Amino acid sequence: MGGFLLFTILLYNGLWFDLKRGYLWNGASDQSQWEWYSTVVAKSVLHFQNPFTTDLQNYPYGVNMAANAAMFGLNIPLAPITLTFGATLTWAIVLTAGLAGTAIGWYWVFSRHLVPNRTAAAIGAAFCGFAPPMISHGNAHPNFVVLFVLPFIALKAIQIAHNERPVRNGVVLGLLVAWQILLGEEPLAIFGLTFLVFVIAYLIPHRAELRGMLAPLAKGVGVGAVVALLIAGFPLYWQFFGPQSFHSLLHGPAGNDTAAFTRFATQSIAGWPESAADVSMNRTEENAFFGWPLIVLMVVLTIWLWRDITARAFAITMYVMAFLSLGVEITVAHQDTGVPGLWKWLGQLPLLDSLLESRLAMGCIPVVGGLLAIATHRVWTAAAERSPAVDGNQRVPLRLVWVGAVVAVLLPIAPTELVTHERPLSPPFFADGIWRQYIAPGGSLVPVPLPSTGEAEPLHWQVDAGLGYPMPEGYFVGPTSAEDRRGRYGAVPLPTSDLFAEVERTGQTADVTEADRTQALEDLRKWNADVLVVGPRQNQEALKSTVELLLRKPAEFVGGVWIWDVRALTP
Length: 571
Known about the structure:
Blueprint: H1 2-11, H2 13-16, E1 22-24, H3 30-46, E2 53-54, E3 63-64, H4 72-75, H5 79-85, H6 87-113, H7 118-130, H8 132-137, H9 150-161, H10 166-183, H11 185-203, H12 207-241, H13 273-277, H14 292-304, H15 309-324, E4 329-332, E5 335-340, H16 343-346, H17 364-385, H18 398-410, E6 420-422, H19 428-431, E7 444-447, H20 457-464, E8 477-479, E9 487-489, H21 495-506, H22 514-526, E10 529-534, H23 540-551, E11 556-558, E12 561-565
Parallel strand pairs: 7-10
Antiparallel strand pairs: 1-6, 2-3, 4-5, 8-9, 10-12, 11-12
């Protein structure tokens, strides 16, 4: 367990050794977004405010924090650290605890309930904690890294089914499920689907035992449901029915290409970024990059261990989840086959319609870890029973052969250190509190361009400013409109926001018309804008010139940024 923790710290050493400016580069805007969530939750705890809503982004409409990846299950208990030392330390703690804790959790369950051999359990658990998809999400998505609760949810469900203290274990199950809801609902949904497939595959040859499981399951799961709802019921209500809630988040077709399963992830030892990018959405969504050597080994283990009921159920689950992750239509090396995937029907169900189907491949991780543990235990047992060689010649140790094979298969997909770059310091305008001179109560600060999914630096500035002012638009998930409750990333941009984004994209000053000026004043009033700010950035001069043309007002250089006080224009 200590080895898992030390290895995780080494992976994140660039972050740990620069907690002031370290930034996980492959995560794009997500570190700034998550640090913002962490800081907002901590501030809510400090001031005894409702942590499930805020108007610091998307002003004046606000953001439903319960419908975003705010991870209350860790950000609330870690609030004192965030308030005292800053959100980057909390970010580092959560990511490190996530990878190491997931490996430790599976090691605990494997070593005590699956195989008696600690080496076998350690090999399986190491894969569960550090598989390529885990490292990919470890750049940006702590809700898909902090998975240490899941093995214990499975354990308690199994114990209840075997009539082991169903009420007591039901209470524990409810506590664990509630905690996981407050950590990440999408991983819980994927794991729940994986566990359901495993249970079906396992019970097919044990159908006679099912009847005896129904009563304890009804009792234990019923108790667990009550406990979970008592804790997580209000956050769930707020998520689905509170202000700025939405009913679904549609991503469009996002299944895995079959080729992705055989390739190596960007941050694997054998990784090749161009090859990975060819069949993935981005570097944080390399959900199926297990590498061809492991695929071959899994086929071999499926054949070898088929008579073992648990191993067979693991194997069936692995293939089913891999197939589900292919999405609504099977794609082979970028070629649409026209063959529908199972997700074409399952993906239409409520709640499941918001899942990113390529992530279903993460359901393969714990069952692959289980197969590795069972196979290693089999080899250790066979080696112990093996008789000495004839003629006094010692055979090559069977355990050594197996360890060599496992190393040959897993070393190419072993993770490398996560890439960390130095983040620019916030300008003094924000860090030194100069902004206070320009924002009145009820007013907002408008960064140019406005914050969005690809523009999260203003969130970092707002954190360094002590969350003292609100901003319009932003990087969050919310409804498309008051009438259209479908979810989307970020706000629906106003025309002036679109204009700024186009200038940022092209680097060319906009050809401003009178209609643009009229629209800008209308949008500034909708935002309750007090001041516009262009910070240090690419295409800064084109953005500055565009705002000057829109407002017919020269910029002032204050505290390292260009500003326009527009309070007189937005009474």
